[in-house]
Amino acid sequence: MPLPKSPRFIQTWLADAEGERAAARAALEETPASVAPKFFYDRLGSHLFEAITELDEYYPTRTEATIFASHGAEMAKAIGAGMALVDLGAGNCAKAARLFPLLEPRRYVAVDISVEFLRDALRELQRDHPQVEIAGVGEDFSTRLDLPADLLGDDRPVFFYPGSSIGNFTPAEALGFLSRVRERAGGGGLLIGVDLVKPRAVLEAAYDDGLGVTAAFNRNALLNLNRLIGSDFAPGQWRHVAFFAEAESRIEMHLEAREALDVSWPGGGRRFAAGERIHTENSCKYTAPDFADLLMRAGFDTPRRWTDPAGWFAVFWAPAR
Ligand code: AVJ
User: Fold this and answer.
1) Distance CA 24, CA 28 (A)
2) What are the start-end ranges of the H helices in the chain?
3) pLDDT given for residue 301 in this prediction
4) Ligand 1 within 6 A of 218 CB?
5) How open is the CA angle 103-60-203, to the nearest 5 degrees?
6) Distance between CA atoms of 271 and 15, rounded to whole angstroms?
7) Is residue 214 lining ligand 1, measured as CB closer than 6 Å?
């Protein structure tokens, strides 16, 4: 048997490691302090997120999967054939792989900041799909979306952004991000999953599960930062806080100091008062009409939309002429 080819891999994340460190330190020194959600995703963080998607309380992944299972064929028809599928935040690549039989992409370009995790996932995927031209890009696509032109070849670019990761952006940021995707999607489009507004109790349980997996995921950002900037955060000193902020229509996650704490890193540090918080994530929830409007404002053509029977989650196909 011939050896499976190994996927081409490009890494831009941490090309400017000193710049990333400086930005992370600056965000910690502000009041309120913050850690960008991209810092959840070191290798352990990607595994913890996988575990979150298996929790009873975390409905988005499961609900989105039912929408793909029920309407995938119709989506594939709307999208059309002969594409380069660009997966933003590909993670373990499982969602895209499940769509391969329907979409039959000629190329698959997986983009994720969790570089080692992505590399492992792609090796396996290439073994299972020798006919697909697979490439990996280790990139922080929240701040840049640089894809070498030859990665897409002559195939129609179809961007895939499932899971409601768009919720990590505020609506204003999301508009900017979607516009950047639109610029690169000409001739193709964007297939995107979006979490919808629903009763507070359902939302809050999904981000504060009984097992404490989400709490561990949240605290793990501190361990990732320790490695990246040399800080000395002790995760046990921080309480996981998650709530639905109605006015902003978003779940907010924070880490709250259990007592007054001093944290230091090379060249600096700061004191956190007891109860002081570090903001680690926004997860914005939309209504379906509001999100369709956002897609149109970003320059996409009139989108199509599929939801689950309860209307908890939506998948949009937004064509880009
Ligand atoms: C990966 C951003 C979609 O916001 O639901 C899960 C991340 N945070 N539990 C989300 C997350 C806490 C997730 N996204």
Assistant:
1) 6
2) 17-29, 43-52, 59-79, 94-103, 115-128, 149-152, 171-184, 200-206, 213-229, 288-297
3) 98
4) no
5) 160
6) 30
7) yes
Atom of ligand 1 nearest to the CA of 206: 9
Query: Does ligand 1 come within 6 angstroms of the Cβ of 168?
Result: yes
Q: Tell me the per-residue pLDDT of 20-39, one tens digit each, with 9 for 90 and over.
A: 999 999 999 999 999 999 99
Other C-beta atoms lying within 10 Å of the C-beta of residue 91: 23
What secondary structure letter does DSSP report for 165?
A: G
Regarding pTM above 0.90, the answer is yes
- In 3D space, the residue among 118, 67, 58 whose CA is nearest the CA of residue 88 turns out to be 118
Quote the ligand 1 centre to 165 CA distance (angstroms): 7
d(CA 311, CA 287) in angstroms, rounded, equals 10
Tell me the pLDDT of the chain averaged across its residues: 97
- CA pair distance 19, 225, nearest whole angstrom: 14
Using DSSP's 3-state secondary structure scheme, residue 253 falls into: strand
Q: Are strands 268-272 and 107-112 parallel, antiparallel or unpaired?
A: unpaired
Q: Find out whether 288 and 265 touch, Cβ atoms under 8 Å.
A: no
Residue 117: pLDDT above 80? yes
According to DSSP, the residues that pair with 49 across neighbouring strands are none
DSSP state, residue 303: P
